[in-house]
Amino acid sequence: MIDVHTHHVSREFPDMSALDASPRWPRMEMIDAARGQVMIAGRNFRTVDSRCWDPPTRLRDMDAAGVAVQAVSVMPELLTYWAAGEPAAAFAHHLNQGIAAIVAHAPDRFVGLGMVPLQDPERAARELERCMALDGIVGVEVGSHVGDRPLGDPAHAPFFAAAERLGAAILVHALHPLGDSMLVGPPILNNYVGFPLETGFSVASIITGGILEQFPRLRIGFCHGGGALMAVLPRLSHGWQIDESVRASLPRPPEEYARRLFFDTLVYDERTLRYLHSLVGPDQLMVGSDYPFIVMETPPGALLASSSLPDEDKQRIREVNARRFLYGPEAC
Amino acid sequence: MIDVHTHHVSREFPDMSALDASPRWPRMEMIDAARGQVMIAGRNFRTVDSRCWDPPTRLRDMDAAGVAVQAVSVMPELLTYWAAGEPAAAFAHHLNQGIAAIVAHAPDRFVGLGMVPLQDPERAARELERCMALDGIVGVEVGSHVGDRPLGDPAHAPFFAAAERLGAAILVHALHPLGDSMLVGPPILNNYVGFPLETGFSVASIITGGILEQFPRLRIGFCHGGGALMAVLPRLSHGWQIDESVRASLPRPPEEYARRLFFDTLVYDERTLRYLHSLVGPDQLMVGSDYPFIVMETPPGALLASSSLPDEDKQRIREVNARRFLYGPEAC
Lengths: 332, 332
Prior knowledge:
12 helices; three-stranded antiparallel beta sheet
């Protein structure tokens, strides 16, 4: 089994103060040998543990859970799209080297998804080249939107062009969801309500922005089953059918694009998994666990395993599709 | 068959200039005897026709489509939550009288859902009383959020309390979705992408705001199948299970509340309808068509009719559930 959605946090972050004095650069404050607080802007963003940075710990968990390979990407909060391009690129390079070091520890068990400063698309394209040149890195993780820009914004074309040219996989993760003022209840609802809605906006922007039309060989995967895409797609498809202005901007039916994107199975409910499977088909789903964070699936792929999906599809979802996403169609 | 989701636009709007000089009050500019432009802030918001205001035209369409009863509510843009409470209440009363006049034309074929100035919750509670006193009106339509406030905001308690006390049905419709800056493509995507996501925020706020805990006899229905609720609910349920702060704010599992809300079947895809049915059960779905607007289902209930849902459920969805929503449990 390949788990495409697992996160990494460095045990030590670079000192960015020479390049940029912002208090938002993360700093690790260790609690003990195995636990630390990721301090961002003076507060503990998240308490993390050695599973985030220690390959032997991860390998033990993987062995216990039957995970052959983890794709490793940074904790999304570390994407630092708020910063200027230059320091963000330096920070990204440091973290990408950290991911490459994890992969180097067990190259047959880990594969890396780095990061780029997508707030500066030309620089992100250059940084992607540097990142893909690191051993063991096959793509990048990006946030669901970038500052004021939706992910499918035309401004990101230089990055997408580079990703297509370099054959880089792109894994999209929710980040700083819109609309937290529209939530009622504890702030953590941002995670349980905001994230899936945010991801819905993100996938929709990739589809309606024509990104797959412009860059047909791109491999883009969305965490958490693409969030609310499953609720948006039928209505968008209906709009495409009845509304000339939608067809004028998008040559193919939205579902055709959706069926070229990848989605992890981290949807928490078998009914949801089966519905998603019916929408995007058996070839676009992959196991993703969110290891080692709070909403993670334990063990990875548990919902898939217990579901009534055909065994043949389960096998594809456990391995083949992820291989295609990470390494490209020629890998299968 | 009862169609719970149909809209009304007055042939003439009241002159609001004495109470409030805003250019946002709508004005009808007739094109010919059967068509008019709804002018809002100096531009044509929508060209509408006599189906919006003429009972005989509606009855002809209903007869042709096998619709026994239409629940009639205003075009959501007319909810005017931007205005001060006093002029908004006067405007609402005028439109509510218009809806009552349509119902009076054929009281066995129409039922009214009025409107209240929810931006001023105490006034909305008083206006609801005046509205419910009109013959043929059994509830109100409300927008998915109210200015800066989510629908489930505690500030709306006076309105919800009055609705529970008066037995008023509440139909929720997407209005002015969040996040239009996150859409890429023609502005109409607001309708195809923004509306379902917006509705997801709205249902979530009703659930996590504990509105059904505080007012257990409320009957709240959501248009367009509750939008992205179907993608949010499994993750929210997961959060409720693993996260004490969510359980502390909400005594029952989120799905229990979802299964006490009502949803129309305007979801455009049989897979989506069956998935929604699996989430909320056969007793909470109702036919809604969005008559006579562009995304309407023609004929109403077509997707339901052609679906593989059990005949027994189809019959409940066509009539019994809507009756329970509109008139209360004692009506069945």
